[in-house]
Specification:
about 280 residues, mainly alpha, Alpha-Beta Plaits, 2 domains, two-stranded antiparallel sheet, 14 helices, 2 strands, binds iron/sulfur cluster
Length: about 280
């Protein structure tokens, strides 16, 4: 038991964070939805990460689908809760502290202080599809197209802001259309970019506006890949296998592409000297 706790304490902390959020929101709002929602996500996440660290091959993909499909199909389409960035602006402008606002606070604004961009590696419904494509290791060096994410971020803000400014009616229905059309576009652009640039995660690197939230907090993430310099032989295998072009052999926070790490643990798995760890 002691050994289990020692090896899995980070997973237990992740699970406890979600369970605490689930109970806090349930007790403060009296809505059973929050209890079930955050317990489900936290359990799926902890199980997925736990099994994956114990070398169960497709555990991360199963975790992505378990959470991603739940949020895309059940919350997004069936329950009409827009969890895209437009949904965040929408609920924020409405002054409603629920749905997408809570989701963004937990997964994308405050949560990354602890678990970095775990959302991108284990839960995002765009990432879950991109990770099935053939270019897991980028074929070419990273391009300087990251500025596109800021343009997308501003467009999403202005788009939803304009709906409120011009007092457009039927906003709930419009947000559902935004959700469906936005996701179809994300998948089309994401898959096309991956195939053209031979890089599964090109969309995440250059286009996704959510990274504007994710990157600053993940800079300070408690959970991050670290390198034992005494074991490392500088073979470069870890970097060649990283889908996000991170220099994980550098332990500094300022390491190259440090805020891009999605905690997929591919580098840890590939290191012949077991020099990398969380
Ligand atoms: S960068 Fe964006 S699209 Fe990619 S996994 Fe993260 S949230 Fe999803
Ligand atoms: S794969 Fe391991 S040994 Fe090779 S450079 Fe990376 S950390 Fe060092
Ligand atoms: S391979 Fe390592 S450094 Fe790269 S994204 Fe995955 S966990 Fe992060």
């Amino acid at each position: 038991m002691k050994k289990f706790l020692k090896e899995n304490y980070q997973l237990l902390i992740i699970w406890l964070i979600f369970i605490t959020i689930a109970f806090t929101l349930y007790l403060t709002t009296n809505k059973i939805f929050y209890l079930l929602n955050f317990s489900y996500i936290g359990t799926a996440l902890a199980l997925g990460v736990g099994l994956y660290t114990h070398h169960v091959k497709y555990a991360r993909n199963v975790c992505q689908f378990a959470i991603g499909l739940y949020m895309l199909v059940y919350l997004g389409i069936i329950n009409n809760e827009n969890m895209q960035i437009e949904g965040f602006w929408y609920y924020l402008f409405l002054g409603v502290f629920e749905a997408a606002v809570i989701h963004y606070l937990v997964a994308k604004i405050l949560g990354p202080l602890f678990f970095g961009r775990g959302w991108c590696g284990y839960a995002c419904w765009t990432g879950m599809v991109l990770d099935l494509l053939p270019y897991k290791n980028p074929k070419y060096p990273r391009k300087k197209h990251g500025y596109i994410r800021y343009i997308m971020f501003i467009i999403s803000f202005l788009l939803v802001g304009a709906l409120f400014l011009f007092k457009v009616g039927n906003l709930e229905k419009i947000m559902l259309y935004f959700f469906i059309i936005g996701n179809v576009l994300y998948y089309l652009v994401g898959v096309s970019l991956a195939l053209i640039l031979k890089d599964n995660r090109a969309f995440c690197k250059y286009i996704c506006p959510i990274t504007v939230f994710l990157k600053p907090a993940s800079y300070f993430s408690v959970i991050r890949v670290k390198c034992d310099k005494e074991k490392c032989i500088n073979c470069g295998k870890c970097q060649r296998n990283c889908p996000m072009n991170v220099d994980m052999t550098d332990n500094k926070r300022t390491r190259k592409n440090g805020t891009e790490c999605i905690l997929c643990m591919k580098c840890i798995e590939e290191c012949p000297r077991k020099a990398l760890h969380l």
